[in-house]
């Protein structure tokens, strides 16, 4: 079978393959991981669970919510430092989004508290440029702006797509 790729097409294909290979190799590491000045190591479950528990302890939670004491055990898995904090932060965001959804139309003081807590999310580590992209941060901001106007659609969409059932 004769190839129908032009020289330019062959060059583009080779460049794409080289890029895929580079990304594949970069994701298979067991040392330091660096990105934009960020240097986080790969660690085991015990260390990442400790990080998770420390993060859980530093965060405030809605009055009717208690976060899990530990991350689910995943023996044999390695984690990038920051993953425990990210998991705790995701739970924080979900807990306060659910709190807002449950109170925005009936309990103004609790819903206002939920929005104040959610306003902390953009400053949290899991929303930093090395862990979240601009689109994610913009999506979150747009959802909060809608919520401030009494529109639950953005927060409901996020909860449905990203939050565990409780």
Automatic annotation (TrEMBL):
| Superkingdom of the source species | Bacteria
| Biased composition range(s): Polar residues | 72-82, 154-166
Q: State whether keyword Signal applies.
A: yes
**What PROSITE patterns would the database entry show?**
PROKAR_LIPOPROTEIN
**Which keywords appear in this protein's UniProt record, sorted alphabetically?**
Signal
Span of the secretion signal?
1-26
UniProt protein name: Lipoprotein
